[in-house]
Amino acid sequence: MDMYQNNPYMALPGVTPEELGYIQQALAQLTESQQKFFYMSYTSKRKNSQDILIFTLIGFFGVAGIHRFVLGQTVMGLLYLFTFGFCWIGTIVDLVNNKSLTLEYNQKMVYESFQMAKMAS
Amino acid sequence: MIKRLFSKYFELVFWIAAIAALAFADPAGPAHFSLCPFKALGFTWCPGCGLGHSIAWLFHGNITNSWHAHWLGIPALGIIFYRIYSLVRLRFFDQNALLIK
């Protein structure tokens, strides 16, 4: 319990060391009120890699590419949609690398939240 | 170290390998072994069928055949190249410079 109070980001569902590293890098350059804004913004923007995994799995039973849409890669999502996820191969690939896909997205969100926090106060 | 390399560059390596394999494939040759579950079930048509042929024809410079194999071949190649580009940028250039003003 104490551990989480020291660093609230460790309580985020499915958080990884790499993600914490990016967050730490951003926090170091922010004042305390900016850090509060950053926390609010980032926790609402970030995605959990487990959710992405579930969206990817839907590709086997029906519509492929939902995970790519959710991660903001619209064109790639359309390509997956029209080709059944490259005949399942793309879906299998994304099952394997769902963590790095999510990290890529979360890294972008760290950057966006960082910029917003800088501007906000 | 291999594990780290694998998890970090997996998608990048996969797309480049796939594109390279298609570039060296012979699009006029007989159908190769397929993982496709629809084909295994006996269906003869699937929305993704012909995409590989289409991209392979493109690398051979035959746009008409490419269009006939699958109309998505040209946009697909563009999208995959764009994805490779953004992955390379992310993995090799953006990483630590991201938050530095």
TrEMBL record, chain A:
<dbReference type="InterPro" id="IPR050932">
    <property type="entry name" value="TM2D1-3-like"/>
</dbReference>
<keyword id="KW-0812">Transmembrane</keyword>
<keyword id="KW-1133">Transmembrane helix</keyword>
<dbReference type="Pfam" id="PF05154">
    <property type="entry name" value="TM2"/>
</dbReference>
<keyword id="KW-0472">Membrane</keyword>
<dbReference type="InterPro" id="IPR007829">
    <property type="entry name" value="TM2"/>
</dbReference>
<feature type="transmembrane region" description="Helical">
    <location>
        <begin position="52"/>
        <end position="71"/>
    </location>
</feature>
<feature type="domain" description="TM2">
    <location>
        <begin position="53"/>
        <end position="96"/>
    </location>
</feature>
<protein>
    <submittedName>
        <fullName>TM2 domain-containing protein</fullName>
    </submittedName>
</protein>
<feature type="transmembrane region" description="Helical">
    <location>
        <begin position="77"/>
        <end position="96"/>
    </location>
</feature>
<dbReference type="GO" id="GO:0016020">
    <property type="term" value="C:membrane"/>
</dbReference>
